[in-house]
Amino acid sequence: YFSDSMWTGVPGTQPPAPNKVTSPELSPRARQSPSACTAKDPVSAPSPASPKSPLPHPASLQLVHTLKAPAGPCLVDVCSVCCRGEDGALRECVVTAGEWAVSVWGPKVQGWSLLHTWTFTEHPVIGLEMLPDSPGLLCVTLGQLEIREARVLGCVSVDGPFSHTLLCAGKVQAVLGVSGCRVACCSQSESRQAVDLMRLSEEGRTEDTFSLASPGQSVRALAVVDGQKDALIGYTDSSDVLLWNMRTSHLLQRISLGLSYPGSMCLRGYSQSGVLFLLLQCVFVSTLDGEEGALFSLVATNPVTAKTSLAHSLSQPAQCPGRLVHGDVRGDAVAAVFQSGAVAVWAVGDSRVVTTLLPGPVGGWHLARWGGACSLLAGQLNGDVSLYHYSLPEP
């Protein structure tokens, strides 16, 4: 099974004992990660039935601050970064991206203010990428439709210094920040598909680069695995899941999902009791005439035998109609924005929405990204960006 010995090389290492549940279904109130199945084969347990009663302890979103159109009317993306404040403590700052510029906003004694703006002239901004456990660093991808270059932006403190460094350039399929101040970059050349891992300094400079085993397939997305800091997932055009060990650069497994989940994208993996759970976003699902559709699927896999089974699905709530516009995940929390301008939030271990943000008097939402450990950033159609504190009360 998917034990720690696959990564550390320690012989005889055993996977952690499974969580105690009363049935082979997923625990309905999993918080840190999806619960494991108690069946002997971790991928043969039946998928859990969706609860029919409302959650007794819904999550809450408390507004912290709203920035008024910080990137103008054209808000491309938003994320957060931790910078040292005037008192030396780490503070969560908000990063906003317009078409040609990225700005960082932070709290000062006199209130929230613009700290710095990076301007780009060769390629427009595509998106922002957070770097976990790397204070003062983030990544910006640039290009038109396809990523042509990625840069590391540095903001050590609210008073600077501020920097930007070229990370990779060319025909880039995906860029992902991973733990240990590292960035994974998937690129395509005339002869081969390459997945490179770059280790950064605290100032954002590339200290070393090494290549992971060539996948031999076109990788269109990368994802991390909660519970395994050296695991990296690649998702291919043919719906194959590739699993690397970033420490050794080995390609450990290929898991074929076949035609079971067409048009899907892998957002995250979870390692639990020898099972690798894959969180898939079903891109083309929407609700019509009130009919619910599964937007996200949690798939249990055996990473040794490559056997898979659906654990459960997250369906589109009736109060959030329209096509799925954008989805984001951090830990066990999933946020999705819909064409109607509504935002829904799930916990991965639950099959019902735990909270929502509905369109207000000034318009609907069109972006929702997880920030720090307990924050959600939401962008409105008029360009405003709101920072919310997210909390899930204990029963």
How many strand units? 28
Q: Can you tell me the residue ranges where pLDDT is under 50 for at least 5 consecutive residues?
A: 1-56, 286-291
Q: What form results from the Cα inertia axes?
A: globular
User: SSE string, helix = H, strand = E?
Assistant: HEEEEEEEEEEEEEEEEEEEEEEEEEEEE
What is the end-to-end distance?
33 Å
How do the strands of the widest beta sheet line up side by side?
Answer: 17-16-15-14-18-19-20-21
Radius of gyration (CA) equals 21 Å
Q: Average pLDDT, to the nearest integer?
A: 81
Query: Number of helical segments?
Result: 1
Which structural class should the secondary elements be placed in?
Answer: mainly beta
The helix content is under 10%
Measured by DSSP, the beta-strand proportion falls in over 45%
The biggest beta sheet reads: 8 strands, mixed
Task: Describe the protein in words.
- This protein is mostly beta strands and 395 residues long.
- Helix content is 1%, strand content 53%.
- The protein is built from 1 helix and 28 strands.
- The protein has an 8-stranded mixed β-sheet with strand order 17-16-15-14-18-19-20-21, with no helix packed on it. Strands 7-8-9-10-11-12-13 form a 7-stranded antiparallel β-sheet, with no helix packed on it. A 4-stranded antiparallel β-sheet has the order 1-28-27-26, with no helix packed on it.
- Residues 1-56 and 286-291 have low confidence and may be disordered.
- A hairpin with a 4-residue loop joins β27 and β28 (385-391).
